[in-house]
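subagent[fold] <- orchestrator: predict structure for attached chain, return tokens only, no commentary.
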Amino acid sequence: MVDREDLLQRVSHAYEVGRWKMAVRVLAIVVPVAILCIALSGRPVVSLGLAVLLGASVVVLRWRNRQGLRVANVGLTAGILPLTAGLLISQVGIASPVVCMTLCVGSGLLAGLWAGYALGGTRTGAIDWVTVGVVAIVTAFLGCIDLGTDMLVAVILSLIGSGLLAGLIQSRFLRSVS
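subagent[fold] -> orchestrator:
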């Protein structure tokens, strides 16, 4: 006969191991992106710190619960566009501040709009919105860390502003339709 307590303990352990395995899978995306950003960065120590922070935070968020999984995925996906724009700007050597600012603001706007759209139709609280913003900003900073403070601020403001605007518009629209 199987001891009920032993069986419950084994089931609980298997459940937690499965949750961690699911959460850690995101590192298959984060680690190669982080290695690329560290290799291309003029500030590899800062990029390494951002990569560790990003990796740890998305794993813990994904492990926490289903809403954390969604929040981590949306934030990571939203930050990829500004990350890519930042890497391209720094590697191509675009000297014009106007072009750099336009690319940073444009990528931040698009990323924020997407994040706002992705979260707008769901029942999320302020903490989830802030968490998506932080994950997206840390992801974007991996590629934009060499661009200077003004470009980083432009990415932050455009990403957060457009995300809030898109979420607000979508939630108002869904309320008026219901």
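orchestrator: received. Logging for downstream: The chain has one domain: 4-177. The helical segments are 4-24, 27-40, 44-64, 66-92, 97-120, 126-144, 149-177.
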